[in-house]
Amino acid sequence: MKYLLTTIGMCIALAIGAQDYNVAHNGGKLILEGVDNAKITSYDGSEVVFSAKIERDEKKSERAKGLKPINSLGLDDNSGIGLSVKKDGDNLKVTQIGECMCDDDEGYTIKLPKSMGVDYSHSTYDSDRLMIEGVTKEIVVSTNYTNVKLKDVTGPMSVKTVYGDIEATFSSVEQNSSVSLNSVYGFVDAAIPAASKAKLSLKTPYGQIYTDFDIDVASTNGMRELSDKKISGTINSGGVDFMIKSGYENIYLRKK
Amino acid sequence: MNYTDEELMQRAKAGELKCISTLFDRYHVRLYNYFFQQTRDKGQSEDLTQNVFERIIKYRKKYREKKNFTSWIYAIARNVHMDLYRKKRFDLPGNDKVQRLAEVPNEDETIESLHDNRLKLAMAQLRQDEQQILWMTRFEKMKYAEVAEVFECSEGAIKAKVHRTMKNLKEVFFKIIVDE
Amino acid sequence: MNKEEKIIDYLQGEMTYEERSKFERSLTSDPVLKAELEEYRLLFDEIDQMEISRPSLTLKSNFDYMLESEMIRQDSKSNVMTLKTWRSAAAVAAILVIGFLVGQNWTQKSVINQQSQALVADMKRNMKSESVTGRIEAVQVSQQFAKPENEVLNTLIETLKNDSSPNVRLAAAEALDRYAAEEKVRTALVRQLSTEKDPFVLIALINTLSEQKVEKAIDPLQELTTAEDVAKFIKDEAHLGLIKIEKI
């Protein structure tokens, strides 16, 4: 059944080249489910803008003319670019319908109003990478295979991936709420401004921890707990909870 | 001059390190094959064998008198292997045993080696602990009670495990024959 | 024990004299059993005749080198006694210092109690937060308790069970890791193992339960290794967990 739907999804006729879909939205979160290779950038605007370079298959498109792809949850492609976009309370919920219609190297580019956070989940092999840039509201990411790249972010955030690597560059470390970066089989590389205040917890049972920060290691009853696999401590006399964990790979925490 | 393994280890523990050399001669080929059967990697199997003896030298004082030496050395072998397995886990998913087996060059394919490959193919379908148990009970001819010592569990548990392993192996083995 | 299992024990030499003779007698009257035995014998013969390969000579020379250097080290070890006695004196001093610190702690206890009640209230309030990172922060508060407070544990367990975000459930599972000696926590972790769908949370649960050698986890772990709809890396992790609990 799923195969059939996917096939239908692929068969839809669409115009060649880049296509846009805009929705006006403010505040809340952009919830993305199974959206392949997304690149999310925050901007000064009041619309969420989705764009994709659509690959078009001439022969298949003839047969599906006038039909719409739907997925197993009954959601349909109401954006014309393979995404179901719906309001969900304060949030905007986006689900990819079937296989990605876009050119493999491109994926979806999404522009996001500054007032919105991101909640991204992806569970299959189909998406290599996720890029989130400039988002300062809450970011929640949960993937199995997707590498996660964050640029000019501030937290709060919670990122977890099973196989993906995580690379994050912070423009500052927001003191409202926690930051956690977790990977089971991938490395985690985070760069934060040298003056950032944080209460660190770095853990990698089978990897190594590398940093150029002077970490004030936590002490219990006057004794310092020392281990090269697990470090708890503060930088710049402490601040928000900042947790990095990798199961089997290295952790890098660097000054930006 | 024919000491048992246990006597040799007891002497090594007391300070006569040279005795470990005799134990090495007795066990290194067996251990190497034990690892090779599971990893299909010559270099790695040699490293693992080396690691086992490194631990024996290092922890010789921990050897308990009268403890079955074969059980002891295989318990160490299992730990050594598990440590490596842990470190390497991130590349496991693509690491298909059967596929790797196919990469082993078929030197001269006589009828015997063809047969041998079929058995290896069947064994590669077993889970790791099943492969280990098969090795210990068939090649080392260890008793269920001795294997139980290696796995630190009851003899009954091993017995059940041997039964399951053999049934699985037989099923796969004869299926391969039919498929050919 | 069924017939097949008897055959295996017979060929493995794991039968007593009486069992053997009884088994051999039943062979003459049961042709099906005999046929089955022959199949197994064929397989066992194959196994016994499997080629053994030889390691390279460097293995032996590396070992010799290793053993020799250990022998040299052993000979030079006779004069370390003085250092050892000095060390134990240092240990006694350390114990005295710790004793002093613990004693100091005692007097501060009532103050700590008040503080921890405030923390618990704080934690519970934040747990209701809309935002995922806010709830993770609440979970993180639990790390400030030196010993497991009942209310803290209940809140964490509740979160592990019911929070809609896997990121928060993961944080709860990891926070509970510290308290995994508690029976209540173990039960909750084992139960979650059978219901949890998120792979990352599953891996965290498997790690904690296997590090702690929780035997109750064996059945659900076994189920994970054979379940149809579970990803391979989780099966591997579950399998490794079983090995760690050392009950195969």
Instruction: State the distance separating the first and last CA atoms of chain C.
Output: 20 Å
Q: Please tell me how large the radius of gyration of chain B is.
A: 18 Å
Q: What are the secondary-structure elements of chain C, in order, as H or E?
A: HHHHHHHHHHHHH
Could you tell me the strand content of chain B as a percent range? under 5%
Describe the sheet with the most strands of chain B. Answer: none
The greatest inter-chain interface is formed by:
B-C, 57 and 43 residues
Please state roughly what percent of the residues of chain C sit in beta strands, choosing from under 5%, 5-15%, 15-25%, 25-35%, 35-45% or over 45%: under 5%
Q: Detail the poorly predicted runs of chain C.
A: 78-86, 106-110
Q: Number of helical segments of chain C?
A: 13
Please tell me what the overall shape of chain B is.
globular
Total beta strands of chain C: 0
Distance between the termini of chain B: 51 Å
Helical content of chain C (DSSP H or I, runs of 4+): over 70%
Largest sheet of chain C at a glance? none
Radius of gyration of chain C (CA) equals 29 Å
Shape of chain C: extended
Which structural class fits the helix and strand makeup of chain B? mainly alpha
CATH class group of the domain at 180-248 in chain C: Mainly Alpha
SSE series of chain B: HHHHHHHHH
The percent of residues in helical segments of chain B reads over 70%
Task: Set out the fold topology.
The complex is a heterotrimer of chains A (256), B (180) and C (248).
Chain A: H1 2-11, E1 17-24, E2 29-33, E3 39-43, E4 47-54, H2 58-63, E5 83-88, E6 91-96, E7 108-113, E8 117-122, E9 129-133, E10 139-143, E11 147-153, E12 157-161, E13 166-170, E14 179-183, E15 188-192, E16 198-203, E17 209-211, E18 216-217, E19 219-220, E20 223-224, E21 230-235, E22 240-246, E23 251-255
Parallel strand pairs in A: 2-6, 2-8, 3-7, 3-9, 8-10, 9-11, 10-12, 11-13, 12-14, 13-15, 14-22, 15-23, 16-22, 17-23
Antiparallel strand pairs in A: 1-4, 4-7, 5-6, 16-21, 18-21, 19-20
Chain B: H1 5-13, H2 19-39, H3 42-58, H4 69-87, H5 97-103, H6 111-124, H7 128-139, H8 144-151, H9 155-179
Chain C: H1 3-11, H2 17-29, H3 31-48, H4 57-75, H5 81-107, H6 109-126, H7 132-141, H8 150-162, H9 166-177, H10 183-195, H11 199-211, H12 218-226, H13 232-245
